[in-house]
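User: Second chain of the day. Same drill as before.
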Amino acid sequence: MENRGTRLEWVKKVAEKVTIPFATGGGVRNIEDMKTLLDLGVDKVSINTAAVRNPELIKKASAEFGKDRLVVAIDGRKNLSGSGLPRLEVVVKSGSEATGIDIIEWAKRVEKLGAGEILLTSKDADGTREGYDIEMTKAVAKAVTIPVIASGGAGTLEHLYQAITIGKASAVLAASIFHFRETSILEAKRYLREKGIPVRIQKGGM
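Assistant: Same format as last time:
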């Protein structure tokens, strides 16, 4: 893991403070990295590039720690028709490297190997605040039976709702709408609940 000492100290502090399930990823390369994070109090570990490079890592991690503690993050992008590449393609290294792997086939394989959840990020939509990639989200969600968490593109509360109802995501991840304090997590949960989406609201408003 990059900047290992600093990062592990940060992870430990967060795990000690939060009362909600806490997942972390980024730079996790092997079983030893996962064990280190889980021993610090992390509930789930996410792997991405390492899984693409070595798919058997998913199987080993699931057997070692249980599928409920393993999230496989999948970054994807769209390609133009006639490009010779998959319409929906897996990318790695934060989206900087193409793989030529079809995202639907990879999602199916990930599930078969033992992943408990998929964290799906559209690198085309990420940071745009114009909404999730509904096409990609729905395609992956329909292809697997494990939960799919949609990520990348949230700019409004309506986007969260669309990803769940139209995109068939089991959950949604958002960052900038909370970071810039345009809304709060509690407001987002209340909005979804009012729209008929079952959402758990803990004591204290989270």
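DSSP finds nine helices and eight strands in the chain.

User: Great, on to the next one.
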